[in-house]
Amino acid sequence: MQTATQSAAIQAAQFQPLESVNRPNLRTEEAAFYLNRRPQTLRAWACLETFPDGLRCRRIGGLLAWPTAEVKALAGVPA
Question: CB pairs under 8 A, 24+ apart, for 8-17?
């Protein structure tokens, strides 16, 4: 069984640093990682339309897409 520290290290290795992301949108799992939230929290924001200021998802082909620029701004990372 993995400890919380080991699990966090594995997850961090799965995603590249937010500064180096240059795609226009992020998947829910990626945005949740960078915002230090669970993916289900972001899905709830989308369902209830209760987004933090400056962040709003788009639906592309039925999937949620989180604008990279908005995630970076909310996370305090320079664009």
Answer: none
